[in-house]
């Protein structure tokens, strides 16, 4: 007799709302912890790595950021197995504590100038623990909510969990921007960047308090009472040909493409306007934060639609739109920041100590600061662009479109994954393809994209700023083809 998810009648609406709220708050905080490192990668590169080569330092910081993604699949195996044997609730309580503790400690580590290479090594170690913890968190939260939700509305209810990754990024940007405004740029870059990391301990404490009140999933409790819990979830998930086939299909037909679309539309977009467009840190963070806030409702909308239209058409539709429109979208983003095509209004120059600042204003309201600083290694030149009103909101629109693609591929993905595997091995089986797709295929996007742009620039290729897009476009296109051919168009109600 096949195992089924909990029928709607056993879960009251109030209980379901409590389950979603408790699961979502904890998962949102874990995403916040995970993403403040990425949001602050430019500053972290100056704190924990040698400053004599800024590009190498940034790539090192992004590599440490990516390391957290690479170990996520291992966390999925370790904690997924634990969740299928011990239970969902206690497993993602452990992951929450590991994540929060690591984030707090990163905020306390002295910089490279004080501790030398020990500093980046400790940051790397804590980043790896963060990755392991996140690898165990998401699968537990998604499985937990799905096992409470009525099968015919599983896409809608699990979509609330899907909002947490984007809201975690939004929260990280909001805390960073607010801290920077309160302290000022100089103090923030000197020591204030530690505050978003230290704040994490308060958020995690709150989440632990909420989750302690939760009960175990009714479906898993029933399975445990009947003595049907898997004794070896890893062997059942990956040792049986039929299950292994579903794991590979979930990865290559859905989560790999979903991962690159997620990280391109949010992280690479932020990195692009900061590093390629030289847009002011605070303004670029605001632009992405506004776009995230405006598009977040899309997760719930597309989760709800997936209950009616099917998961496949929406997930693959988001991938197809990304493949077809990324290059024109990023061409427009670049054009908004390209001052060589703008008309100058005025230029003012000021000199202070070893620094010369030249401010050029343009007819569209944008302004560029060229800051030249003389030091022992020569003259360091930095450009900071502030967009005018029209450019600012056009950039918000271009990011919003990309985040909308993210909501299409990501909104239904939790329901899609939990429906592929039976209860006794669900936590383990769905976690691995999710975290390989998002952690490795998706998480490497910022690092590989920046490296591709650097290489194209060094080789003096045409439009080098678009070179970073080849990676997400290629992965999403391959995933679309595999998913289109092999994925079923019908949602699965029973395992």
List keywords for this structure.
disordered N terminus; Growth Hormone, Chain: A; globular; 21 helices; MFS_trans_sf; 495 residues; MFS transporter; alpha+beta; MFS_dom; 3 domains
Task: Describe the overall structure.
It contains 21 helices and four strands. It folds into three domains: 9-229, MFS general substrate transporter like domains (Growth Hormone, Chain: A, Up-down Bundle), CATH 1.20.1250.20; 239-338 and 390-494, Growth Hormone, Chain: A; 344-386. Mean pLDDT is 88; it is low at 1-9. Helix 4 (72-85) packs antiparallel against helix 5 (88-106), helix 7 packs across helix 19 and helix 8 crosses helix 9. With 495 residues, the chain is of the alpha+beta class. The N and C termini lie close together (10 Å). Helix content is 72%, strand content 7%. The chain has a four-stranded antiparallel beta sheet with strand order 1-2-3-4, with no helix packed on it. A hairpin with a 2-residue loop joins strand 1 and strand 2. The chain crosses the membrane at residues 56-78, 90-109, 156-179, 191-212, 247-267, 287-306, 313-330, 392-420, 432-453, 465-487. Its main location: membrane. It is a multi-pass membrane protein.
């Amino acid at each position: 007799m096949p195992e089924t998810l909990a029928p709607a009648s056993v879960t009251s609406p109030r209980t379901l709302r409590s389950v979603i709220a408790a699961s979502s708050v904890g998962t949102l905080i874990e995403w916040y912890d995970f993403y403040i490192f990425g949001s602050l990668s430019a500053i972290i590169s100056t704190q924990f790595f040698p400053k004599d080569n800024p590009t190498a330092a940034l790539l090192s910081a992004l590599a440490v950021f990516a390391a957290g993604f690479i170990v996520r699949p291992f966390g999925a195996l370790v904690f997924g197995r634990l969740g299928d044997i011990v239970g969902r609730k206690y497993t993602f309580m452990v992951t929450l504590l590991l994540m929060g503790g690591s984030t707090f400690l990163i905020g306390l580590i002295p910089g490279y100038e004080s501790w030398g290479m020990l500093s980046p090594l400790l940051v790397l170690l804590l980043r790896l623990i963060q990755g392991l913890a996140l690898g165990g968190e998401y699968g537990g939260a998604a499985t937990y909510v799905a096992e409470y939700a009525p099968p015919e509305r599983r896409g809608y209810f699990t979509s609330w969990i899907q909002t947490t990754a984007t809201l975690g990024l939004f929260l990280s940007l909001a805390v960073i921007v607010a801290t920077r405004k309160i302290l000022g740029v100089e103090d923030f870059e000197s020591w204030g960047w530690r505050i978003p990391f230290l704040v994490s301990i308060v958020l995690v404490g709150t989440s632990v308090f909420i989750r302690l009140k939760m009960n175990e999933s009714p479906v898993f409790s029933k399975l445990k009472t009947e003595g049907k819990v898997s004794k070896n979830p890893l062997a059942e998930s990956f040792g049986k040909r039929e299950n292994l086939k579903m794991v590979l299909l979930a990865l290559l037909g859905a989560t790999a493409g979903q991962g690159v679309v997620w990280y391109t539309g949010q992280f690479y977009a932020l990195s692009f306007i900061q590093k390629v467009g030289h847009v002011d840190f605070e303004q670029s963070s605001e632009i992405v934060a506004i776009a995230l806030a405006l598009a977040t409702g899309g997760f719930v909308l597309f989760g709800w639609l997936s209950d009616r239209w099917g998961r496949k058409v929406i997930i693959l539709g988001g991938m197809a739109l990304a493949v077809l429109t990324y290059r024109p979208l990023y061409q427009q983003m670049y054009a908004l920041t390209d001052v060589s095509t703008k008309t100058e209004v005025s230029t003012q120059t000021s000199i202070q100590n070893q620094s010369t600042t030249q401010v050029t204003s343009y007819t569209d309201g944008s302004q560029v600061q060229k800051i030249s600083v003389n030091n022992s290694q020569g003259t360091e030149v930095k450009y900071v662009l502030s967009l005018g009103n029209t450019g600012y909101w056009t950039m918000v629109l271009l990011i919003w479109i990309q985040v909308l693609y993210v909501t299409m591929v990501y909104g239904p993905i939790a329901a899609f994954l939990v429906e592929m595997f039976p209860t006794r091995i669900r936590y383990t089986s769905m976690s691995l393809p999710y975290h390989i797709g998002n952690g490795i295929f998706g998480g490497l996007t910022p690092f590989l994209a920046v490296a591709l742009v650097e290489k194209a620039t060094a080789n003096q290729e045409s439009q080098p700023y678009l070179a970073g897009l080849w990676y997400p476009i290629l992965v999403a296109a391959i995933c679309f083809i595999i998913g289109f051919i092999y994925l079923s168009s019908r949602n699965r109600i029973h395992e």
